[in-house]
Amino acid sequence: MSIEPSTGAVLDGLWAVQQVDGRLLDARARLAALDDGTALRAQADAARAAASEVGARLHQAQAAQRDHELQLQTVEGKQKKAHGDLYGGRISNPKELASLEEELVVFAKTRDQLEDQILGLFDQVEALKVSDAAARSTLAGLEAELAAHLAQYEAARDRITAEVEQLVAERTERVVAVEPRLLRKYEGIASQEGGIGMVAMLGAFCGGCGNEVPAHFVSRIRGGQVVTCERCHRIIYVGGTA
Q1: Low-confidence residues in the chain, pLDDT < 70
Q2: Measured between alpha carbons, how far is residue 202 from residues 44, 230, 234 in Å?
Q3: pTM
């Protein structure tokens, strides 16, 4: 144990500072533990990227479908013209007629291919529309959840920040009653012991580490002497020092 002279009133004043510091520790821990929405924001970002990717695939499929439909219209137009030339009686040259018949065969084959491709693209577009709607719904849900969470986070942050500011102001008022030398000693201990530089007796034991405090030291503490625990080095306080 370390023993230094002091006064009971100063120990009471230092204990009052410790009570404020304890509340400050708790408030700052609660502030640090607040969920700022990082995980939810990452989920929303991933959902946004997924929705964008599905949307891009849908637009590409729709563009391909339109392109194939235009190609089909062009082929059907050429096929109709060739059919009219072949059977309209305007052309009688055997070679030209044979060429038209070959063209019609090619046009028919190309039309069948385009129709099959358009049918496949139609199915693809419809499936992508379903995926796109699902991705957008998921994104909207996550964005709404994130917005609500951030509103709660900001309210809690502002509330605890105000609490910390009030406690800091209260501490500033309380430290005036503590001897500067003793305050420096207390703050040095607190910096090494998790922010707790002074602890109350619990029965016959140190309230910080549970080490037994010899009985003859208790009367010295009550007399205003500064006694520190030999194990955790915190200043020991006995309520009602005089």
Answers
A1: 1-8, 240-242
A2: 50, 16, 14
A3: 0.75
- Residue 214 is given by DSSP the state P
SS3 58: helix
pLDDT 10s digits, 186-214 = 999 999 999 999 999 998 999 999 999 88
Q: What is the pLDDT of residue 29?
A: 97
d(CA 21, CA 126): 63
* pLDDT 10s digits, 10-24: 789 999 999 999 999
Q: Report the DSSP beta bridge partners of residue 206.
A: 201
| Residues ≥6 apart with Cβ < 8 Å to 53 | none
Q: Catalogue all structural domains in the chain, each as residue range(s) with its CATH number.
A: 2-31+179-237 (1.10.287.1490), 38-162 (1.10.287)
**CA dihedral in degrees (184, 187, 189, 190; nearest 10)?**
180
Gyration radius (Cα) of the chain, Å = 42
Give the chain's length.
242
Place of tokens 């008022």: 173
